[in-house]
Amino acid sequence: MSAASADLIHLVLGIFGVLIVASIIGYVLEKRLSPDGSNAAIENLNARIKAWWVMVVLIGIAFVAGRAGVILLFAFCSFAALREFVTLINTKRADHWALAAAFFVALPVQYYLLWAEQYGIYSIFIPVYAFLFMPIIAVLRGDTERFLVRIAEVQWALMICVFCASHVPALLTLHIPGYEGRNVLLIAFLVIVVQLSDVLQYVWGKLFGKTKIAPRLSPSKTVEGFVGGVVSASLIGAALWWVTPFTPLQAGLLAFVITIMGFFGGLVMSAIKRDRGVKDWGHLIEGHGGLIDRLDSVVFSAPIFFHLVRFWWSV
After folding, report:
1. What is the domain count for the chain?
2. Phi, psi of 221 (to 5 degrees)
3. Which helix or strand (DSSP H or E) is residue 72 part of?
4. How far is CA 244 from CA 4, 114, 120, 170, in A?
5. Which of 43, 153, 223, 227 sits between 20 and 30 A of 119, alpha carbons compared?
6. What is the pLDDT of residues 48-84, one digit of tens each?
7. With 80 as the cut, is the pLDDT of residue 253 above it?
8. Which residue ranges run through the membrane (predicted)?
9. Which residues of 271-310 are buried (b: 16+ CB within 10 A; e: fewer)?
10. Full residue range of the structural domain in which residue 53 is found
11. Three-state secondary-structure class, residue 61
12. Cβ-based neighbours of 46, under 8 Å, separated by 6 or more
């Protein structure tokens, strides 16, 4: 067994251990405090734990399948997220060609370029080529009503759901001296730290939260929850240095950066939901809303994490 496989197994076993403990705690709380399902907080907690089991199993299967499994998983996530995003934006019949190009040209080409490890192209394909050709495709239909708003929303959907999300599997393309064959652990580090930050911010906020950060955007986010979650997740990131090419200090600093980006990503996506008058992006994941509700922190932190690692550790 390779060192990378051993580290991945240890990491997965640790995650399963945490989920088992969380499931037991949720079961006990439900039996004692919500036997009839009347406690909304506990019911929501258990729904989230069940959803986490499903997500961890799916990600675990993708990791076992290797590079192809990870790229396919995130390509599917991008497709599902793009579909959720498009349901909330202003589109007309004249935009159908542009939308079709987004789903069936831009998305698969972006992930093909990832597979081929063509960094020079996949890093600019969507923000340059797709951004220029999308309005050209749309304008050919001749409908100019709210044209700028319509095309900007499609471009933003591509940027968030495809370009930013694709930087998670893009970590597999990095060539880090002395870290060959272990890049999947970078994905595990990114996802674990960012997602734990979200959870810990929620927990710290429930326990000690008093000062709301942005009540109009996300009433549940508090200064106390934000500080507690970011600090806790950064310390966990430092403790996970052994699965990365970083020192404990470097791992902690990177964890701090990506948790900050994840927090602001959540705020930005909450602002879009408030603008559209919805609570969740969808209902794909029980207890978590839509797929974008789970990816919002990751998609904002992934490009930053990718480029920090690429320019400081990659060759």
Report:
1. 1
2. -85, 125
3. helix 67-86
4. 10, 21, 25, 16
5. 153
6. 777 778 777 877 777 777 788 899 989 999 999 999 8
7. yes
8. 7-29, 49-82, 94-113, 119-140, 147-172, 184-204, 225-243, 249-272
9. ebbeeeeeeebbebbeebbbbbbbbbbbbbbbbbbbeebb
10. 3-313
11. helix
12. 26, 27, 30, 287
Q: What is the dihedral of CA 20, 74, 281, 229, to 10 degrees?
A: 50
> Alpha-carbon distance 16 to 245, whole Å?
24
List phi, psi (to 5°) of 34. Answer: -145, 55
How many C-beta neighbours within 10 Å does residue 32 have?
Answer: 10
**Average pLDDT for 263-281:** 85
**How many angstroms separate the CA atoms of 263 and 301, rounded?**
9
Torsion over CA of 223, 271, 107 and 187, rounded to 10 degrees? 10
Q: Is residue 192 within 8 Å of 15, Cβ to Cβ?
A: yes
* Integer angstrom CA distances of residue 173 from 67, 300, 310: 10, 19, 10
**pTM score, whole prediction:** 0.88
Phi-psi category of residue 286: left, alpha or beta, with phi > 0 → left and psi -120 to 50 → alpha: beta
The DSSP bridge partners found for residue 90 are none
Beta bridge partners, 222, equal 212
Q: Which is nearest to 287 in space by CA: 44, 52, 23?
A: 44
Pairwise CA distance, residues 221 & 36, whole Å: 29
Instruction: Give the model's confidence band at 6: pLDDT under 50 very low, under 70 low, under 90 confident, else very high.
Output: confident
Whether 299 has a pLDDT exceeding 80, the answer reads: yes
- Return the pLDDT at 4: 63
Report the C-alpha gap between 228 and 248 in whole angstroms.
20
Residue 186 CA from chain centroid, whole number: 14
In whole angstroms, what is the distance from residue 186 CA to residue 7 CA?
11
First-to-last C-alpha distance (Å) of the chain: 26
Confidence of residue 307 (pLDDT cuts 50, 70, 90): very high
> Does residue 251 contact residue 240 with C-beta atoms inside 8 Å?
yes
